# Entry
Amino acid sequence: MVLLLISWTIALWPHLSNAITLSHADAQRIGKKIWQNECNGTISGLTAWNQGEDFASLGIGHFIWYPKGRRGPFEESFPKVVSFISKRGAKLPTLLLRGVEQSCPWNSRAEFSRAQHTVEMNQLRQFLVDTIDLQAEFLIARLEGALPKMLAEAAPADRANVQQQFERLARTPHGCYALVDYVNFKGEGVLHTERYQGQGWGLLQVLESMHGTSDAAAVDEFSSAAKAILTRRVHNAP
# Structure
């Protein structure tokens, strides 16, 4: 069985050494669950350009792809996904063979909409369907970098608990899914620009509000904590 092994160490915390170990089947299940939740499990949902936005949102993680010369407040992630998938040996469609730095070939939502039934769009969708597992592995790999950032941002007295809560969740596929999904769509919670009335709503804030020790109860506790944090965000919003 192919194992996805992600490990990290950080000099500031010499005792921080952990690994998320998932089978290929687990990664596939996580990818399909995110696909179902975020794209309704549809192939067409893997390629979107939302009203009022200046970029395409592709794949299970709504990975952002900007047209040439465009940049916005959000990090462009689709080229990184393509690079990650390519290094894993997956075949790229012709549209993506121009290099990882290439820009989105559609310059507007209108152009993107007109291209819905083109050969290029169909090939792109098939590529995204065929690499659901690798997209999930990319999201898990991105999660790898979240814990050190969160520990750096957390108050010293809270760091041990944040790490403990992260590890409780990371030990099971369901918990790993919860971490991946939340950090991908709500962020790590380390940016001071992402605060309402001084309070964040990212993964860090959810983990800080958890204090349990049972692995069996970790996902339910995470769900309750996340709901409370997001409710607070709504109340604090200007």
About this structure: The chain is about 50% helix and 10% strand. The CA atoms of residues 192 and 200 lie 8 Å apart. Confidence is low (pLDDT under 50) at residues 1-17.
